[in-house]
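Worked example (supplementary).
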Amino acid sequence: MSAPAISVIERALAGFKPEDHGLPADFILTKLTAMKGCGCKVPREVLLELLKTFDDGSMVIDNDAGVGIGLDSCVVPLRHKGLNLVQTTDFFYPLVDDPYLMGRITAANVLSDLYAMGVSECDNMLMLLGVAVELDGVARDVIIGQFMQGFKDNADMAGTKVRGGQTVRCPWLLLGGVASSVAADDEIIRVDQAKPGDVLVLTKPIGGQVAVNSYEWLKKKTGRVEELGLDECKILKAFQQVTVQMCRLNRNAAKLLHKYQAHASTDVTGFGLLGHADNLARAQKEQVQFVIEHLPIIEYMDEIATKMPNGNGFNLFTGTSAETSGGLLIAMSLENAAEYIREIEMLDGFPAWIIGRVEATSGNRGAVISPDRQIHSVSSSIHQQLN
Amino acid sequence: MSAPAISVIERALAGFKPEDHGLPADFILTKLTAMKGCGCKVPREVLLELLKTFDDGSMVIDNDAGVGIGLDSCVVPLRHKGLNLVQTTDFFYPLVDDPYLMGRITAANVLSDLYAMGVSECDNMLMLLGVAVELDGVARDVIIGQFMQGFKDNADMAGTKVRGGQTVRCPWLLLGGVASSVAADDEIIRVDQAKPGDVLVLTKPIGGQVAVNSYEWLKKKTGRVEELGLDECKILKAFQQVTVQMCRLNRNAAKLLHKYQAHASTDVTGFGLLGHADNLARAQKEQVQFVIEHLPIIEYMDEIATKMPNGNGFNLFTGTSAETSGGLLIAMSLENAAEYIREIEMLDGFPAWIIGRVEATSGNRGAVISPDRQIHSVSSSIHQQLN
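After joint prediction of all chains, the assembly is encoded as:
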């Protein structure tokens, strides 16, 4: 596997100019949906209610919702001894305006559910596509062609291939995939082993929903930027930072789970940092609580959230702001966490953080954000590199 | 595995009464989309054009389109010797008005791509759901709950389980699934071995698109039924017949492929009988042509197609009328075909037919409908059983 010809960082910094691709200058990809990225999930309560239809426990829908054993992927022991089918699917709508980067994000997001289980070898990907009915022939070919290229490039980065899929017409542009691995028992991390005294590690900053939405305000000239008195340049930089992070695979993060004996892990997506932390905490064998004490937030996104009504825009500070293709959240020993963070930063070129701890509890399992939580503003390394 | 509590035949004959489920009497499920079943596919030419983006041949999108090696599922040789990941996905929109039966059809349709390869053991299913944004809470719970039950019941019938999925909001009600099997080499039929002298067998009648659409005319009172002078009772019976056929698994058909040494097989869905026959013929090792001489058509559907403008409604007689969860199309020796047909009829309670033959050709591989083709009207056994 070699790195794709197109650099995510260069592409994110350059921005997508529709006219360079034969599209009208006012073409905006994200107008092809009313919902963005992982923010399109059916609410968790609704899903849980619907699943009550099944009283025999044989059906588990949307593992992301923490239904059943709270795993990100399903793990199916096979007829062939010692082997398991580990599998996940995700689909959603465009949330950045560059269809190539949307392809990379879509692939990274679906692979992430395998990586959250420590499974770093994906054996096959399928691509799911709903082609917006309103697209004309030119737009369709540009958008879908570039999307496919981005999806394929991240499959290459992941050392896997795309060998099937389904393409239908749909009112919104629908993007997704399926990732599958046939993994030996020891390739899969047991994610229910968190112990009191463990710390929590996070491998990507939060604030993606704020970044994507504030960039939309800018791009669609909604007046919101002026109304809140926001800085356009800072919004753009944050959007570029989050785009690069969403394209980045959690594959190294997955490999290191084994090396540093992670006790539990999940990836942070539609339910936000606290939502996924809570799912994971509830799935633990020991009666533990996850306490989040630091919120690593993409630079300037905390300021935007503060300026919004109630001072908690998109529920950023209460931890339920949606992320798309977010980082891994991991419980491990303090000693291992320090080494894990050092090594992932070396491999990926981006920082990770200890954001909390695992406590014994006599009450219910779950996750909370500490009242004394600290905001940690994550400045953009992609701009520092170039400036 | 035991048969589900709900009988498909009884349910199809009873019809779906929205008011029995707390829904408005004028609620029509198929109004939640502008496209029906496998008729929603992006046209084959468009797909093939888009795939030219990839010149390295590493990406195969939508195997149904006959891209690449023309298989219905992708077959991925694994790191674990002698094993393959066989995998397929499909999603589409409602085409019958009973959400429970829609769940059974959706599961049968996705499983069918495994069955077409002779793989009769599915190791896992994922469910894909787009919940129409316009549904209110009551309608959503009824529709999705019943859909899930139907999907699960057919997974049970297939001896497999649903262990994951994704649920998003979407303007149309989107229904689909993923089916995966980790299969030993000898569980998979080599589908490129058709020989001159073979005959073609079909295990379900065609005419699904005509039946579903004429029933829509009736149900939505479009005036088309009166305009064409159609018989309402016959339309209803045809719709019930095709509904039962769409719910029926091709699993026995798959198992018998091994017993009777099938040389080639595929399932008939969105591109119609001729479209899929043509894909399969082109994938053969030997230079052959598939000649279709008999069209087994659901009773009365040929009459409707004849009464429509140009006398070939929905391209029924030219073989490209879309089917959803259609039968298997198989090339095998004449002796084996006779035994195959006898045994599938015994197991499933529905007939299959020899519909054509495999010829050597000096021209291009492909499939044609013979100018002397015969129409065979397939009367409904589900009504005969009850009358």
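Two points are worth noting when inspecting this output. Chain A touches chain B through 69 residues (CB under 8 Å). The two ends of chain A are 30 Å apart (CA to CA).
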